[in-house]
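Hello,

I think I submitted the fe (ii) ion job twice by accident. Can you confirm which output corresponds to this input? Input:
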Amino acid sequence: MREENFLGTSPIQSWYLIASSRELRKNQILGAQLGRHKVVLFRNEHGIAGATDAYCPHLGADLSDGCITQGKIRCAFHHWTFRVDGKCETGERNATSYPVMEKHGAIWLFNGPSPLFGIPEMDQMHATILKPRVIRAHPHLLTPNGLDIEHFSSVHGIHFSKQPVFKTEPFGIAVDMEIDLNASKSFRMARLFAGNQIRAKFYTLGGHISVIRANAGAVPLHVMFTHRPQPDGTSISRTLLFFPEKMKAPSTLYRFLSGLFLYFIVRDDVRLLEKVQFRSENLKTGEGLALFRDQINQMETMA
Ligand code: FES
Ligand SMILES: [Fe+2]
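Support: Only one job matched these inputs. Its output is below.
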C-alpha cells in the first residue's frame, strides 16, 4: 500500500524556507534536511545561489563538506565540481539540482524539477524573519492549525461572528474569518484599536507554508509560518512578520502588538501539538483539516 503523504517522511514537492538571505554568504555552503532527504544550498562568489542533493553523484560524499571554487561547488572527496544548475564539468554525472528563489529576505528551495506554484506575494510589505525554532511536531500538524476552526474557541477563546467557510485552492486551503471581539474574552482589549470585529484570511500553501492576513484597526497582522520536516518527525519552523513598506521602520508598538498576538496564539497550539498522537481517521468530510489532508495526499513527493 502506498504510504500517505500526510504525516509521512517523504516531503511533498513544495517551497521550503532553508535560510534567511543573510545566513547564506558568498562562498558558503549550508546542508539542510527535508525529511529523510538532505540537500545543500550554496552561494558562489558572484552571489548566485544554487541547490543540489547533498550526496555527490560520484561516490556519495556529503557536498556540504566541499567548497566553492570558480563559481561552482567542489566535492571534498575527488574534487568533482558542479555548477549552480548541477552540471558537472569534471566527471560523468551531474548532481540533481533544485530551483532556488530569494524572496521576503529568505532563500527558498523547491524540491522538484520545476516549481508547481509560487511563494505567496505580500504586496507592498517587507518582512522580518524570526529565528529558527525546533517544534516537536510534524509540519502537517502545524501548517493547517488555522483550518481547525473548532479549536479557536476552546484553545484561544476566539469566537466568530459567522461560520467560516473553506475554499480549496490550487495547492492550498483558505478560510475567511470574522472574529467577534465582544464575544472573544481574551482579545477584548483589542477593541481599543480594532473596533468590534477583525476580518482575517488564513490560507495554506504546499503543505508547509501558512499565512494569516488581517488588520486589527491600524495594526497590521500579516504573518507567514513555514515548517521544514526533519528526519525524526519534528519541524524547523520560521516565522515571517510583514509590515507595510510605508512603515519604513515598524514602530516598537507595532512589533510589540504583533509579537504579543503571536505569542498567545502560538504558545498554546505548540504545547498541545507537540504531544498529539494524531487520529486522521476521525476527521469529518468537508472540514478544513480533512480538506488539507486529502490535498496533501494528492501531491507529488520528492523523487
Ligand atoms: S565522491 Fe564526490 S567526487 Fe568522488
Ligand atoms: Fe491555534
